[in-house]
Design brief:
By secondary structure, the chain is mainly alpha-helical. Helices cover 57% and strands 3% of the residues. The chain has one domain (3-115). It starts with a helix and ends in a 7-residue tail after the last helix. 24% of the residues are buried.
C-alpha cells in the first residue's frame, strides 16, 4: 500500500451513511474537502437507491434535506441528485407525492442540469 493511500485511509473520517440519514451522526460539508462531501452524498444515495433498501423513503427524504442545504456546489451534489432521480430508483416522489425538499433542489438545480444536457426535467 502506498504512503498516500495509507494517509488517505487514516484521514478519511467519513460518517456512516445509515447513521447520518437516521440523524444519529452529523456531517458538515466542507468547501475545502469537496471530495469528502461528494463521497458522503454518493454513499448516502447508494444506500437509499435499491428498492429494497431499509427505511428507504425516510432516508431519501433526509438526503434531499442535506442536498438542499448545499446547493451552491452543483458538481458535488449532482451524482447524488442523479441517483435519486434515476428512473429505476425515482426517489423524488415519496409516499406518492413530490417531496418538498426534492422539489426545492430540482427547482434550483434542474435548469442548470438541463442546460448542461445531463438531466431531463423531472
Amino acid at each position: 500500500m502506498t504512503a498516500s493511500l495509507r494517509a488517505w485511509l487514516v484521514n478519511v473520517d467519513l460518517p456512516d451513511p445509515a447513521r447520518l440519514l437516521d440523524g444519529e451522526e452529523q456531517f458538515t460539508p466542507d468547501r475545502d474537502r469537496i471530495d469528502r462531501t461528494m463521497a458522503v452524498y454518493s454513499s448516502c444515495a447508494a444506500l437509499v437507491a435499491p428498492k429494497t433498501a431499509e427505511k428507504r423513503n425516510e432516508r431519501a427524504a433526509a438526503l434531499w434535506q442535506m442536498l438542499a442545504g448545499n446547493l451552491g456546489m452543483l458538481d458535488v451534489v449532482y451524482p447524488a441528485v442523479r441517483a435519486l432521480c434515476n428512473r429505476d430508483t425515482l426517489l423524488v416522489r415519496l409516499g406518492g407525492k413530490l417531496n418538498t425538499d426534492a422539489e426545492a433542489v430540482l427547482k434550483k438545480l434542474g435548469p442548470a442540469f438541463a442546460a448542461a444536457g445531463i438531466m431531463e426535467r423531472v
